[in-house]
Write a structure and sequence with these properties.
heterodimer, A: 308 residues, alpha/beta, Spore Coat Polysaccharide Biosynthesis Protein SpsA, Chain A, Ubiquitin-like (UB roll), 2 domains, eight-stranded mixed beta sheet, five-stranded mixed beta sheet, 10 helices, 15 strands, B: 605 residues, alpha+beta, Aldehyde Ferredoxin Oxidoreductase,  A, domain 1, Aldehyde Ferredoxin Oxidoreductase Protein, subunit A, domain 2, Aldehyde Ferredoxin Oxidoreductase Protein, subunit A, domain 3, 3 domains, six-stranded mixed beta sheet, 25 helices, 40% helix, 15% strand, globular
């Protein structure tokens, strides 16, 4: 007698509920992130990269946000010899030896540095305190195969320092700089550019939900800009504590305002350390209290002995 | 003789009840310590090459350790060791409590049985020696009931390890149980049950001395105090089930046979709420100050020991979210004597096969707790689909075919525990290369993944070193033996463990020696497997885990490519001093001292 589990006819099929459980894969883009810090910050009066930001620095925040959006490494391009504050793990520093040649020079150095790491780079400046991962990803996704630059045009202005570039543009950018054609617009004249206006950017549902005013492109030029930005309330995030950390009424998701992981921990009376860890949006487990948080983030606090 | 040892193993021939002793030289004890390590040495020494794990001549060892009987917290543990019917390779499974103490105080560092009883029997060992008694009355009973009945029959002082009905029927992942705790993995209950051996009963008849009792007392006091600290809080307060919601939040909770890493029904199964609704008691093993056991009750009042692994395997892995259905299934596994991880993994595989139309079981669907319970009952009874599923997912997939091999959730035949390899890539390596198969107790590499010190989605050389380190630590903890729930209290573990072992044994042992001991034990297990037919393809993961990426909440995609896994395995081999095909060189085998009747154990390359 045949075993009872056998299917009589292998061609027989059942409608599989498995499909109900499959999820579409939305990848973090395989790109390099580049943060330019070499400007003179003359109007600000002090290096923008050093500006304090919720217990950390503006540069630390910007590099960490970009790192969350790209699959590749994050490069910081500075003026040769420029002193930088402490950077997060995995961030590498490149020197721009031709100081004072403007943003296209920085872009040229950035693309050249990134060329052996990825075909695509997101390039931004350090002074963008509200840059959101959703915005970076939306710009990167706009860099389709038939395009060389995805250029946001928001609040009435093109944003070359919040744009995505093909790293193969490095020689062209270099050539333009050598010819003293120092404005990014000269580069855009000679390559394929897709311009992303406010509506195009907001067509991305995550941008619409998490950065509807497109504050990602806000940059800081003067002390008053910084003071105003710093005075705004931190982003609204969701926090959940697990296991023994969920004791004393700490169960379930809670909404708090916090700009960094350390602030989020403090909001629920925890301190990151030997016995308390956190995972941001289900990703890496970390004790890095400086990790910047963005609107819409979810933080899970877990005890360090997670595991059997 | 070093303190903490008797220097001998009792060998019992179940064919006729006769027994003999095997002298254990100081050198062997120092090289292999006890528990898992000494059990490995015994298998090299006593298991015939190529033996069928369920054949009478296959040995089954209950192995104690030098720390058993000391006041050191969590030391009342024993290892059950044999060649596994599930994997065909070396298998060691640990359990705890009074059986360890009474068994060792029969005057033996290990008790080995081989042969087969003519009828259902129990083996008694005490000061009067070893003898077999009839166990017809206990045969067919759940292990806990058999244990209680036998204890009542034998009188005071006896401690019993028993198999349930699944072991009697040779289910390939049947457990050996004592006091409700299971030496769970690898089917050692089947090895015991097919010998017609329902139970082993032991009664203490002697004492064992430590080399420096005052120093041992001092170390025990210190360790006890440390065991009350934050490093063990999770186990005391919620138990390992506290993992479930945390793992769900960080995309490491295997769900519906590894088709997802988060489970929408997880909140209903989390310890945080369930402990209040269903928790009824907390227990400790003998000689333990942690007290990790959390007893829950089902709606109908049935009591169940709840841990993360049984809830994961019978809950998310099978898509079941009703806590009563999960707890009932877990209680049924306990009654039958089934490893919950292998049960859940095998049933989840069968659910997927049924949904894909590969097996004719339209009643079996993900998320159906009634179907889960029916499958468990059929496994225990050996009827219907149960006859197939009793073989485990690897063998069953080989028989069913149709591509089901690629989603059979096992390594070397042992079903995967509740750690998602794609989002825990140090653990992925640990699961792939470990001698026992996919196992979280012999490789604790998930600790590195969850430490915050490395990228758990992108395995590389640092993950390799973490996998080696945690495997070495497990080898020592499983051989001394100390409960792994203590591991968080040690800051320099090898040095601190040497500090515990020295006053017990009198050996001038240090952390470096224990590191060498760990490497030796890991290698000895690998060599046993080589001897029994291991091939490089056995160090690998199921195809699904290498072909299907997972999205995590951040938008990143967790991919574990075959190339990445291959690179980590190559790195592991190099770190272990193995050649590129995973085999040790001659110098490594010299250190093992695995002599068998005058012949040095070797392996075929």
């Amino acid at each position: 007698m045949a075993p009872t589990w056998k299917v009589p006819n292998r061609s027989r099929t059942h409608a599989s509920p498995l499909n109900q459980h499959s999820s579409s894969i939305v990848d973090v883009v395989a790109a390099v992130g580049v943060v330019l810090v070499g400007g003179r910050s003359s109007r600000m009066g002090s290096p923008k990269s050093d500006l304090e930001w919720h217990g950390s620095t503006l540069l630390r925040r910007t590099t960490a946000v970009v790192a969350r959006a790209v699959e590749g490494p994050v490069l910081v391009v500075r003026a040769a010899g420029q002193l930088l504050p402490e950077l997060g793990p995995g961030v590498t520093v490149h020197d721009d030896t031709r100081e004072g040649r403007g943003p296209l020079q920085g872009i040229a150095v950035a693309l050249a540095a990134a060329a052996d790491r990825a075909d695509v780079a997101f390039v931004c400046s350090t002074d963008m305190p509200f840059l959101h991962v959703a915005f970076v990803r939306a710009v990167l996704r706009a860099l389709t195969e038939d395009v060389d630059v995805a250029l946001p045009v928001t609040r009435g202005y093109p944003q070359p320092l919040a744009a995505a570039y093909r790293t193969s543009l490095a020689p062209l950018a270099d050539k333009l700089v050598a010819a003293d054609r120092l404005r990014p617009a000269f580069l855009f004249d000679e390559c394929r550019v897709t311009r992303l206006d406010d509506a195009a950017l907001r067509a991305d549902p995550l941008v619409a939900a998490l950065d509807p005013a497109l504050d990602s492109v806000v940059n800081l030029n003067e002390p008053a800009d910084y003071e105003q930005a710093r005075s705004l309330p931190p982003p609204e995030i969701t926090v959940q504590c697990f296991g023994v950390l969920a004791g004393q009424g700490g169960r379930g998701p809670r909404t708090v305002r916090a700009a960094t992981l350390a602030e989020a921990a403090a909001a629920v009376s925890l301190r990151l350390g030997q016995h308390v860890l956190a995972a941001l949006n289900g990703d890496q487990v970390t004790r890095d209290g400086h990790l910047p948080l963005l609107t819409g983030d979810t933080v899970a606090f877990i005890s360090a002995d997670a595991g059997g | 003789m070093p303190g903490g040892y008797f220097g001998r193993a009792l060998i019992v021939d179940l064919d006729d009840g006769s027994s003999s002793t095997l002298e254990l030289a100081d050198d062997v004890l120092r090289r292999y310590l006890g528990g898992s390590g000494l059990g490995t040495w015994l298998m090299h020494r006593l298991a015939p090459r190529g033996v069928d794990p369920l054949a009478p001549e296959a040995p089954l060892a209950f192995v104690f350790s030098p720390l058993v009987g000391t006041p050191l917290t969590t030391s009342a543990k024993f290892a059950v060791v044999a060649k596994s019917p599930l994997t065909g390779m070396l298998n060691d499974a640990l359990a705890s409590s009074h059986f360890a103490i009474a068994g060792k105080l029969t005057g033996h560092d290990a008790i080995v049985v081989r042969g087969r009883c003519a009828r259902p029997s129990a083996l008694l060992i005490d000061g009067d020696g070893a003898r077999l008694v009839d166990a017809e009355a206990e045969w067919g009973l759940p292990a806990a009931e058999a244990e209680a009945l036998l204890c009542a029959r034998l009188g005071r002082g006896w401690r019993v390890a028993s198999v349930g009905p699944a072991g009697e029927r040779g289910v390939h992942y049947a457990t050996v149980s004592h006091d409700g705790r299971h030496a769970g993995r690898g089917g050692l209950g089947a090895v015991m049950g097919t010998k017609n051996l329902k139970a082993v009963a032991v009664r203490a008849c002697t004492k064992v001395a430590s080399a420096d009792p005052a120093a041992v007392m001092g170390a025990a006091k210190d360790l006890r105090e440390r065991s009350f600290g934050p490093a063990t809080a999770k186990y005391r307060e919620l138990g390992t089930l506290a993992n479930l919601l945390a793992f769900n939040a960080i995309n490491t909770l295997p769900t519906r046979n590894f088709t997802a890493a988060t489970f929408a029904g997880a909140p209903k199964l989390g310890a945080e709420d369930l402990a209040e609704l269903r928790g009824v008691a907390r227990n400790s093993c003998a000689s333990c100050t942690i007290g990790c056991e959390h007893i829950y009750a089902t709606k109908n009042g049935k009591k169940v020991r709840v841990e993360y692994e049984n809830v994961f395997a019978l809950g998310p892995m099978c898509g079941v979210s009703d806590p009563d259905e999960v707890l009932t299934a877990s209680a049924r596994c306990d009654e039958l004597g089934l490893d919950t991880i292998s049960t859940g993994g095998t049933v989840a595989w069968a659910m997927e096969c049924a949904e894909r139309g590969l097996i004719d079981a339209p009643w079996l669907r993900f998320g159906d707790g009634g179907a889960l319970l029916r499958a468990i009952n059929e496994i225990g009874a050996g009827v219907g689909l149960g006859a197939l599923l009793a073989l485990g997912s690897r063998r069953a997939a080989e028989m069913v075919g149709g591509g089901s091999e690629r989603f059979a959730p096992h390594v070397k035949g042992l079903e995967l525990p509740g750690y998602e390899p794609r989002t825990l890539q140090a653990m992925a390596l640990g699961l792939a290369v470990n001698a026992r198969g996919a196992d979280h107790n012999r490789s604790g590499a998930y600790e590195a993944d969850l430490s915050g010190d490395l990228d758990r989605l992108s395995g590389g050389q640092r993950h390799v070193l973490a996998a080696v380190e945690t495997e070495d630590r497990a080898a020592i903890m499983d051989s001394m033996i100390l409960c792994k729930f203590l591991r968080g209290v040690f800051t320099e573990p090898f040095d601190e463990w040497a500090g515990l072992l020295s006053p017990v044994t009198g050996w001038d042992v240090d952390g470096e020696e224990l590191r060498a001991t760990a490497r030796r034990i890991v290698l000895a297990k690998r060599m046993f497997n080589l001897r029994e037919g291991w091939v490089p393809a056995d160090d690998w993961l199921p195809a699904r885990l290498l072909e299907e990426p997972l999205e995590v909440g951040s938008g990143r995609v967790a991919r574990l490519s075959p190339d990445r896994l291959r690179a980590m395995i190559d790195g592991y081999y190099e770190a272990r001093g193995l050649d590129s095909s995973g085999r040790p060189g001659a110098a490594a085998s010299e250190d093992l001292a695995l002599m068998t009747d005058g012949e040095r154990v070797t392996f075929r390359s």
